[in-house]
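Re-run with default settings, no changes from the original entry. Doing this only to confirm the output is reproducible before filing.
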Amino acid sequence: MAPTSKPLQDKAASAALAALRQLRVTDLRGVARLATQATTGVTHITEGVHQSVLGTMGLPGGKEVGRTRGLTGLVYQGIRGVTRLVDVSLQAALLRLEPFLERGANAAPPPEREAVLSALNGVMGDRLAEDGNPLALGMELRQQGQAIDLAALRASGQATGKVLLLVHGLCMNDLQWLRAGHDHGAYLAQALDCTPVYVRYNTGLHTSINGGELAGRVEALLADWPVPVQELNVLVHSMGGLVVRSAVQQAVQAGLQWPGRLRKLVFLGTPHHGAPLERAGNWVDVILGSTPWSRPFARLGHLRSAGITDLRYGYVQEADWQGHDRFRERPDARRHLPLPPGVDCYTVAATLARQRSPLAERLVGDGLVPLRSALGQHEQAERTLEFPKSHQYVAYGLGHMALLEDAQVAQQLVRWFG
């Protein structure tokens, strides 16, 4: 056993060292904050279960729901106090060390680190942003994995008058448009002589919040573009479609200029009317909260971000979620938002089913988004998004993520944008 275990241990150690090299000092501070918050969360759950047991015996609890009293309550209170003290001490120490340890840090973080941060932000990005955690991602317009440098773009002479904006989906980032050696943005740039600009954003925030920020950033981008802008086209994947629909609406309401330059908008697997996986997650909340024994564990379901809960029905407007408990089950009460007027809108929907299988198409979809939702179709006719038949493309035998690499989808994009 010893000769075979040693190479495995060495391999595991090498993998751990490689992962550590990808971390930045700010990452350590963010992880430390998450660790102390996790300790506090586990303490809340444990105390909640403890009080549930005491409650069945007729013993009263503390002043707050799920809290114990007396000596037991003091113990839990002490754990939370020590955890807060450790958190404050760690944050202060790491903050003082950052200027020294960040010297010589690589300006371009590796794709693996970016992917982990994007996934973390998708799951709990709203909490990271609210807490000021350095792991929270901000919105950026990027090229080649870096914030776009318009001065360098102007000096290189590579900017064209045709701007293609690409907006990714949940738990993803701008680098993940490259999949299996193919990037729709680079492919369209070569085929149609346009300049791709990639958006990176915190997918854990409400789609309408991201939409509002994107509206302002696109306006500034086109105002400073190195050459006169002839047209603006947008390609979106999954949640990115909801963000862009929100951005266009808010830009129009604010009197911004860029919606007038928007010519074509293509959706790839966008859940216009929501995704059943989030609705299933919501029912998990309901089930966990139905008994005193499982109710404390409902906190785990409440970790998921505002961006994820917006996918329950496909929220794009602030009024869809504001003033409501997003973890409470309620019917679809969205205000209908039509597709942007004056813009040629197209949609690509995928299904894992084979062609001429309508039942499977309805039940399966692309594994994440139902076919009808991606096509904008709704049981209530007034909620249906009007995509002409010639502006719809159904990819059979294809999954949600495969939309980013499929050759036939790429060719369809060229036809539509061209």
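The chain is about 50% helix and 10% strand. Residues 138 and 201 are 6 Å apart (CA to CA).
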